[in-house]
Amino acid sequence: MSAHQMLKVFVTRRIPQEGMKILQKASMCDLSLWDSDEPVPRAELLKGVAGAHGLICLLSDKIDTEVLDAAGPNLKVISTLSVGFDHLAIDEIKKRGIRVGYTPDVLTDATAELTVALLLATARRLPEGVEEVKNGGWSTWKPLWLCGYGLSGSTVGVIGLGRIGLAIARRLKPFGVKKLLYTGRKPKPEAEEVDGEYVPLDTLVRESDFVVVSCSLTPDTQGLCDKTFFGKMKKTSVFINTSRGAVVNQEDLFEALSSGQIAAAGLDVTSPEPLPTNHPLLTLKNCVVLPHIGSATYSTRGVMSELTANNLLAGLTGSEMPSELKM
């Protein structure tokens, strides 16, 4: 590449200013941006990516063969503002020798905090309580009114003790959790720090008072939490998912919650996203659904944006990326 050649970069959405400033200062970049908070329409994505050397995308952008073909042979780097990469056609990207940057680590703490908040809100029925205050349902003190489940003395099971799973476990321990079980592809030495016990999935599901899903979406975990899975859980147990919506069979979850097979569920991820407002899960009092806000703190999104921009620029110059996906 000649010293003066401008490299076309397409950004699929307005990203936080920390990252935009870095991109705007990069003299080698000819920036093209879908200037909106809403996802880029498919036709605009295909048009925008044509001839691009670099692409910045979000989880909501499906980067498949059609998009890669539309981009053409110039495309050298894709930088995603996310830790997840199931929206990317990884095999096809690898085949074409395109490098991928992503944002792990920086959103670990924010996601772990949100997971604990969602677990407590679900287990202690906070949204129901707020609703009762607002609608006049709060009349007098009653011994069992709005009773939920506490963490003290409980058994917590974490499915997937990666960075985020471990950060969740660290935060739950001080609540007086008696036993922490985890499952995954293999035992993790770092589990010692939280006295985690590696057990088969079946054992975890049967014994846990709280089941927290924190694994990545793979062919093995797709639809993992189904009728059989919920059937093994205790009737008093609470199910929490902050990983990916497709890990859960939502029809089976609805059945488990409405029949009293399990006590409650808290979800920060669904399939699809957004969840339609007429979805059966939203009719249930014992199901708390959040709009995928695991990493939604100002500082976290700012750092993610910075890292996304720096990953892209490093990829364009053939340098080492701060955070490259090993494929």
TrEMBL record:
GO cellular component: cytosol
Highest taxon in the source lineage: Eukaryota
Coiled coil: none
CDD domains reported for this sequence: GDH (cd05301)
Gene3D superfamilies the record matches: NAD(P)-binding Rossmann-like Domain (3.40.50.720)
TM region(s), chain numbering: none
GO molecular function terms noted in the UniProt entry: glyoxylate reductase (NADPH) activity; hydroxypyruvate reductase (NADH) activity; NAD binding
Domain spans labelled D-isomer specific 2-hydroxyacid dehydrogenase catalytic: 9-324
Protein keywords: Oxidoreductase, Pyruvate
Short name of any one Pfam family annotated for the protein: 2-Hacid_dh_C
Record-annotated D-isomer specific 2-hydroxyacid dehydrogenase NAD-binding domain positions: 116-294
Family, as annotated: Belongs to the D-isomer specific 2-hydroxyacid dehydrogenase family.
Protein name: Glyoxylate reductase/hydroxypyruvate reductase
